[in-house]
Amino acid sequence: MDERARIGLGDAFVALGQGILWIVQSIWQAIASIFGYLGGLVFGRAPIPEGLDKPDLQAAQIKSVDIFDWFSWAGTQEDKQSLMKFVYYGGSTEFFFMVFTLFIGLTAIGMFHRPFLWAMVRGLEGFANGVGRFFAWAGLLMVIQQVIIVFMQRIFTRPDIVIGFGVPLQFDISWYAEELKFYNALVVSLCVTYAFVQGSHVRVDLVYAGVKFRTKKMIDMFGSLFFMMPLAVIIWLYGWFFLWRSLIVPNPSASDQVEKLVLLKWRALRWNVETIGFSPNGFTAYFLFKVLMVSFAGLVFLHGIAFFWRSFLEWKEGEASENKYLDKDTLGEGEEAYEGTH
User: Fold this and answer.
1) What is the per-residue pLDDT across 109-119, written as a single tens digit (0 to 9) for each?
2) Cβ contacts of residue 168 below 8 Å, gap of 6+?
3) Structure pTM?
4) In the chain, where are the structural domains located?
5) What is the pLDDT of residue 173?
6) Structure confidence by residue, pLDDT tens digits, 39-70
7) How far is the C-alpha of 275 from the C-alpha of 180, rounded, in Å?
8) CB atoms < 10 A from the CB of 80, how many?
């Protein structure tokens, strides 16, 4: 029994060591990739080698494919391979460790030069506020469109709505009625970090309010690092391939290797945007909800970084720095009692 326990403990240490080694190697490869890509921007990329009979030539060809070439889509081989490479790396461990390495590097710089970290916090919070304040107007559009639908359907008894000049946009009433869900999704997914900055999310508090200031900041750092950011990563990884499976064929999979996508599947690649509705004349752009799901995950991850940095800086500098540079909405002078309730 003791022998089995020693063997099991030894295997656990070996597995732990292999895991740590894999993480270190992945971070080192991410550093090399970052500097390699920056070098490619400065000095240009290498030409595509001839022949695919050797693994090193396959790796060289994959590396030579520019991941952003497909933005100027012309349907060429380069565009298709570029899109497949983009799909792969968007949900890959390589991309995760590249972002993770950048986070570690920027955090290390900010620990030695706090004004730099405050500037990053202000930038990320400003981005969250800007996106949220813009897309919050979707709520008003939703109300106006609902009123129009009621008038057209109940008063004018029209089966459709025509909008536009020259070439009109004409859809059934049910199409516009189902589109209201899209406006609601815009508000929920793209205003989530804006609401976080403004302190508008509902919070269930068990111990937070009763602890000291620096303890609160430690709780915030722990929550952002071990709950907020990992949850965003999980949603991103599931949502990324879920999105692209509704946009292109052959359908990419999380289990596909980059060699299979870039060197083989690109030959059959074509756009196949999903336009299936839940009703015969209903809203047909449900793929946009999948775009919003990925956007939601990206925004939450970025703000998780910003919240970690803000919590660290406030923990380091003390209570005097609480809410420093925080851009919160205000109802105006004399309305302070009602702020935070809107």
Assistant:
1) 999 999 999 99
2) 162
3) 0.86
4) 137-190
5) 85
6) 665 555 544 333 333 456 677 777 778 888 89
7) 17
8) 23
Q: Which of left, alpha, beta for 334 (phi over 0: left; psi -120 to 50: alpha)?
A: left
| Residues 141/143/145/151 CA torsion (nearest 10 deg) | -150
∠ Cα 206 209 211 (to 5°): 100
SS (H, E, C) the chain: CHHHHHHHHHHHHHHHHHHHHHHHHHHHHHHHHHHHHHHHHHHCCCCCCCCCCCHHHHHHHHHHCCCCHHHCCCCCHHHHHHHHHHHHHHCCHHHHHHHHHHHHHHHHHHHHCHHHHHHHHHHHHHHHHHHHHHHCCHHHHHHHHHHHHHHHHHHCCCCEEEECCCCCEEEEHHHHHHHHHHHHHHHHHHCHHHHHHHCCCCCCCCCHHHCCHHHHHHHHHHHHHHHHHHHHHHHHHHHHHHHHCCCEECCCCCCCCHHHHHHCHHHHCEECCCCCCCCCCCCCCCHHHHHHHHHHHHHHHHHHHHHHHHHHHHHHHCHHHCCCCCCCCCCCCCCHHHCCCC
Q: Look-up: residue for tokens 């920027």?
A: 106
How far is the CA of 159 from the CAs of 154, 239, 280, 281, in angstroms?
A: 10, 35, 14, 11
Give the tokens for residue 83: 């899109």
Cis peptide bond upstream of 250, omega within 30 = yes
